[in-house]
Design goal:
Two copies of one chain form a homodimer. Chain A is α/β, with parallel strands linked by helices. The first copy, chain A, is 43% helix and 13% strand. Chain A has a seven-stranded mixed β-sheet with strand order 1-9-8-7-4-2-3, sandwiched between helices. A three-stranded antiparallel β-sheet of chain A has the order 10-12-11, with helices on one face. In chain A, strands 5-6 form a two-stranded antiparallel sheet.
Chain lengths: 383, 383
């Protein structure tokens, strides 16, 4: 129950253990077509360019930036946690300029500040932001931010690593231009793949670049020729696809489709509400206000006087329960508890509350005992 | 039996299907240390910087170039097949200059031409070449090429995607500076990881760069902090490691260690000799001369008048046997038959000869029937 990877369902584990076949085998190619269709469903898009980058989410982020941004461009980067800072690194390593719009960690991106930056930099190529900040557990208003980007003629580049499958995300309806995610959060596949999708405006920018994409491996003009919708003849080898990882992604996307994405969103919300209510009853404080919190991830303030690493060690040793620590400015100040994908169930909620209550009591923390689980149960099973 | 991925052993498939745990879990971190040790064995090196890049071989190639080469540098690139051309793309996308030394496809790299180029470009930063060209089945003299690079003050950058585990490769003894491989060839793991190792001279160059590495994802100065030998405190998060793929690599490296790398090299050689002798008895011609051929991969000339795609289709449908087609200049001219890792066994040799003999006879090719298998058996089982 850390900030990802989430629990992987036995169906997905079994899929990853299927015999490896060739990356150009007709049976594999047929599965690739299904992966694309299922990813379009997950992203709620009709975008032709929808595929999993053959590497973790950081590579998906880099794929978006190196394909769309060129040296000399200006990109407005909103930062309210760790991953906005990583976007800045990406922009600057291309030789482009990052205009940073900073918000406090634990709060969502301020729309007014984002609009001010777009006004102040009329030629900006893109507005980039994180939909769901995994370092803090904050959800920002992606729909409004994309609308702002469009209004000022900039592309939107969206980090949906933690949001995809867990929070409402409507790529086409919101007018998202480029978006990337990860396999190991709410899709509950193993880490290692990064789904991306580009809309028509982004493809236009890609096809009218002045220079070659600086990464050969991530050059989507080449990768697309392997992931083409055309038949066998149209498909050309780029790199050797991670066959078994893609078996797993295919299976996890099938499971999302079977559940229905709206049901998955509702499940994440309900379980998160129960967890937060339980913590509140116990007397623990969340980092993020109720209005902005992410259902997939709760950052919980470490109570005064509690030995944080020792608590995590006991949770792992006694309960097999992993929770994350804080990153960056939040190091030592929060625990990050994931309820993502297959790890978002009533059983996870109850185990986490019970384990945390028992461990914190042993550690001498001042908490209200005996109330968290009943409060959570009432929310989980009230109808 | 194509040019990779090779067959993956059930032990490795089962390993990939183990429950996913966190990429910072103490149990996972302990396994990472073993992966590094086992990779050092496979590469025959003591290099501290030895780790698997979290993406396929193409990303390992890119990791070597973007970490060691900067804009304005000159790199001598030897090309005798497809993958030398990809090296050129890597060099040029950094803003560096690639001096191409070209040899005919199907022949090894000419040492004299490589030395002439080093002489003509005294400030060259690196000499880059492919040890085992997967597009043609040619082995080049990596030891001599690395010695030349050192003699002229250039780094050696070696593509060992297909050679690692299948052909003798002595990283430290040969003075290799930077080398990358892939998981899906002679290591017989699923595709998706790229082992790399950097020697001291390469680390020196990396640590004294004038500019940041242009790829954040592949920046080894950052990746190293996650793959550090130090304990938990010294380890810092970079990207989420592909946990299940690493389970598989760990298991495949254990199997290589159990067999013994010299035994693996000898096995690849024996099975390849038997396959080539069988084809010769049948009357089929290899692309590559005996002295230069790669034991992991045989490129076979397509006999006149034979429908090449139809032959491959029948091999796949009737025998479940995948063989590769030609790439680049060799498209339509050769089949590429792999005997890599777990796909290098007497059973694979005999199946391939029998299936090819039967299929080519059906296709009306002019071959000698009934002799290939006995010839191969004699070589395989003569003692």
């Amino acid at each position: 129950m850390g900030p990802g990877p989430s629990d992987v369902h036995p169906r997905v584990l079994q899929a990853m253990g299927r015999p490896t076949i060739g990356h150009l085998d007709p049976a594999f190619v047929a599965m690739m077509d299904e992966v694309k269709q299922l990813l379009r469903y997950a992203f709620q898009t009709k975008n032709a360019l929808t595929l999993p980058v053959s590497a973790p989410g950081s590579a998906g982020m880099e794929a978006c930036f190196v394909n769309l941004i060129e040296a000399g461009d200006t990109v407005i980067v909103c930062q309210n946690g760790v991953f906005g800072g990583r976007m800045r690194e990406n922009v600057e390593r291309i030789g482009a300029t990052a205009i940073m719009v900073e918000d406090a960690w634990g709060t969502p991106i301020d729309l007014n500040k984002a609009e001010e930056a777009l006004k102040a930099h009329p030629g900006a190529k893109a507005l980039a932001f994180v939909h769901a900040e995994t370092s803090t557990g904050v959800l920002s208003d992606a729909k409004a931010l994309c609308a702002l980007a469009t209004k000022y003629g900039a592309l939107s580049i969206v980090d949906a690593v933690t949001s995809l499958g867990g929070s409402p995300l409507l790529t086409d309806q919101w007018g998202v231009d480029a978006i990337y995610s990860g396999s190991q959060k709410c899709l509950s596949c193993a880490p290692g793949l990064s789904p991306v999708t580009f809309g028509e405006r982004a493809i236009d920018v890609l096809q009218n670049r002045k220079t070659k994409v600086q990464s050969w491996f991530l050059d989507l003009t080449l990768v697309m020729n392997y992931w083409t919708d055309g038949g066998g003849a149209a498909r050309s080898y780029h790199h050797t696809a991670p066959v078994n990882s893609l078996y797993g992604l295919h299976e996890s996307l099938l499971m999302l489709h079977e559940e229905g994405i709206e049901n998955s969103w509702a499940r994440h919300r309900l379980n998160s509400d129960a967890l937060r209510a339980g913590f509140a009853a116990m007397g623990l404080k969340p980092l993020v206000a109720d209005a902005d919190h992410l259902p997939q991830l709760t950052a919980l303030k470490v109570p005064d006087g509690v030995d944080k690493p020792e608590t995590r060690r006991r949770l792992l040793e006694n309960y097999g329960l992993e929770v994350g620590g804080g990153l960056g400015d939040l190091t030592g100040k929060v625990w990050r508890i994931g309820l993502m994908g297959q790890s978002s169930t009533p059983a996870h909620v109850i185990l986490c509350l019970s384990a945390m209550e028992g461990t914190l009591t042993d550690m001498g923390a001042n908490i209200n005992p005996g109330v968290a689980v009943p409060v959570a149960q009432k929310i989980l099973f009230s109808d």
